[in-house]
């Protein structure tokens, strides 16, 4: 059940809200949630903040974590207090979200209208593949220039108590999505090699000139930019079915170009008069 934030309108003891618009933690670990207090002085009475955590008590959080209490003591002038919310480790493959909401604030505390009173907590699946870096991050394809990417991350090979996972392919997914002039390129396992749990190498597939080639379309770099996404399959198959693709991030970008690329600079700064 989704809770809604109670809009307390009393005055005097401060304004209370969450410190972030979103949180994340690996499943089975505790996530730190902080409640901030502003516009208040020394408390004349104790203020109790109740957090409600919406999640499945069979797979996401223990029953004891459904509500959490944070107390700002009378006589104190604290700007924030924190609480840990424990999650369950059910070795689930896919990331999933639960929700934390400030349900109530007692004795004159205020929840700001339009403020941070609720936020998602992303539970990071224990076997989800993730890409942290792609090197080089621009270039041509393997057929033209023998370009091979080194992809680093985690869970490219996974062995757990309930399932195992291995890489099946690597996808070059246009960051503009299905409306992009480029199309998704899938590199099958024969061109994906040196696979370890934290890295692999992949031959860059052919690109679609001119619109998806930065050399032909320099004013629209996004059209030539791809997410490099690692795809794994699990044994046994996940029930319910879950995607095996690594989530898209800003760290997995590759810019396809048939033109020249700069890979390094020996001197990165110098005087404005030049001569370096």
Question: Tags for this entry?
Answer:
276 residues; six-stranded mixed β-sheet; 1 helix; disordered N terminus
Structural summary, described in words:
With 276 residues, the protein is mainly beta. Helix content is 1%, strand content 39%. The protein has one helix and 18 strands. It has one helix at 142-145; strands at 15-18, 23-26, 30-38, 47-54, 67-72, 80-86, 96-105, 118-124, 130-135, 138-139, 148-154, 158-159, 164-174, 185-188, 192-193, 199-203, 225-235, 253-256. Strands 10, 12, 13, 14, 17 and 18 form a six-stranded mixed sheet that branches. It has a five-stranded mixed sheet with strand order 2-8-7-4-5, with no helix packed on it. A hairpin with a 4-residue loop joins β12 (158-159) and β13. The longest helix has 4 residues, at 142-145. The relative contact order is 0.16. Mean pLDDT is 85; it is low at 3-11.
Structural class: mainly beta
Main beta sheet: strand number and arrangement? 6 strands, mixed
Q: What would the average pLDDT be, to the nearest integer?
A: 85
Distance between the termini: 64 Å
Helix content: under 10%
Radius of gyration: 25 Å
What is the element string, with H for helices and E for strands?
Answer: EEEEEEEEEEHEEEEEEEE
Dominant shape: flat
Strand content: 35-45%
Low-confidence stretches: 3-11
Count helical runs: 1
How many strand elements?
18
């Amino acid at each position: 059940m989704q809770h809604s934030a109670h809009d307390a309108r009393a005055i005097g003891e401060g304004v209370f809200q969450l410190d972030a618009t979103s949180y994340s933690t690996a499943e089975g670990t505790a996530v730190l949630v902080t409640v901030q207090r502003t516009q208040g002085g020394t408390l004349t009475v104790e203020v109790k903040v109740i957090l409600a955590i919406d999640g499945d008590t069979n797979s996401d959080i223990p029953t004891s974590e459904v509500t959490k209490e944070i107390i700002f003591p009378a006589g104190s002038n604290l700007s924030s207090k924190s609480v840990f919310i424990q999650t369950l480790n059910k070795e689930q493959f896919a990331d999933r979200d639960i929700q934390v909401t400030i349900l109530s604030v007692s004795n004159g505390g205020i929840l700001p209208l339009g403020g941070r009173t609720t936020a998602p907590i992303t539970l990071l699946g224990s076997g989800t593949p993730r890409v942290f870096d792609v090197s080089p991050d621009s270039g041509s394809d393997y057929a033209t220039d023998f370009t091979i990417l080194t992809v680093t991350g985690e869970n490219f090979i996974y062995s757990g108590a309930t399932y195992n996972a291995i890489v099946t392919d690597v996808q070059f997914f246009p960051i503009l999505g299905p409306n992009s002039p480029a199309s998704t390129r899938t590199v099958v396992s024969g061109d994906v090699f040196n696979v370890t749990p934290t890295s692999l190498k992949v031959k860059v597939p052919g690109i679609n000139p001119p619109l998806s080639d930065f050399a032909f379309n320099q004013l629209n770099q996004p059209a030539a930019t791809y997410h490099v996404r690692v795809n794994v399959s699990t044994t046994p198959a996940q029930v319910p079915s879950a995607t095996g693709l690594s989530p898209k991030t800003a760290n997995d970008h590759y810019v396809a170009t048939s033109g020249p690329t700069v890979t390094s600079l020996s001197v990165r700064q110098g005087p404005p008069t030049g001569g370096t």
